[in-house]
Amino acid sequence: MEFGGPGLSSLSMDERATLCNMATECSAKTGICDPDDLTIEWLMKRRQGLTREEIYNSFVFADKDAKYDGGIHDINLDDIQPMVAHPGDPDKGIPSDPTNGAYIKDLGVVNIDIAYAGSCTAGKDDDFAYYAKVTKAALDAGLKVADGVECYIQFGSKTVKDLSEKNGWTDMFEKAGIKLIDPGCGACIGAGPGVSDNDEQVSISAINRNFQGRSGPGKLYLASPLTVMASAFTGQITAWDPELFS
Ligand code: SF4
User: Is residue 221 within 8 Å of 210, Cβ to Cβ?
Assistant: First the structure.
């Protein structure tokens, strides 16, 4: 899959990485984002010794007359509303994978037992800034993680862990009752804390896959970092809104 246009230009490099990571869930082999000035700046910080021109000349662009077997899809980012990939029910023909989905506003009340944030897909700098934003709002409103909910955040890398500590986010998360997990493949592959114990449990998670049984026998909804963290404090699947805890 290729991504481009003004909407893409408005996204940070972290958000572009999420897009490319999730392209596989649309059955693509990989995802590619059109490079722009932000890409060059990002690479110059990480490939010292290379000039702007050398970086630009290493980019690969699609041919002007390239044909796309999957078609070209225009997405107006203003129209996007918070969604989840629901756990599916293969017995009823509902696939248990992230290609299904539902608007959160149409879900009704879905109480949760586990909120799992982080992992390789949602454990980057920007994701942690989202977790911190929601957690700060919750703490300011006198809230902690909802009763009966276990909330975990897994760092995407050692660099992210260091950033979280430096920004004071780690202390803030712990104060709110969130458990932090070192970088690695945890509940996403059914390993370690955050895996459901039985088929009655409901999880909301920012990991990228919810195939049946992948993270325990429970019902696993996939959602954005903002949704996962908002839900941890309300105890049910909830889209983030800056006024949520007011
Ligand atoms: S198992 Fe999950 S956390 Fe680990 S690399 Fe794969 S998608 Fe990422």
Answer: yes
pLDDT tens digit sequence for 6-15: 999 999 999 9
In the CATH hierarchy, which fold is given to the domain comprising 81-234?
A: Aconitase; domain 3 (3.30.499)
Q: Hey, how many other C-beta atoms are within 10 angstroms of the C-beta on 15?
A: 15
Residue nearest to atom 3 of ligand 1 (CA): 185
Determine the Cα–Cα distance for residues 62 and 55; give it in Å rounded to an integer: 17
Structure tokens at 208: 């990228």
Mutate which of 119, 195, 209 for ligand 1 pocket (most atoms within 8 A of beta carbon): 119
Q: What is the pLDDT of residue 25?
A: 82
Residue 111 DSSP one-character state? B
Query: In angstroms, what is the span from residue 189 Cα to ligand 1's centroid?
Result: 7
Which positions of the chain have pLDDT values less than 70? Answer: none
The rounded Å distance from CA 62 to ligand 1 centre is 29
Question: What burial class does residue 220 get, using C-beta atoms within 10 Å of its C-beta: 0-12 exposed, 13-18 middle, 19+ buried?
Answer: buried
Give residue 200 CA to ligand 1 midpoint distance, Å. 24
- Spacing, Cα 181 to ligand 1 middle (Å): 14
Domain layout of the chain by residue ranges: 2-78, 81-234
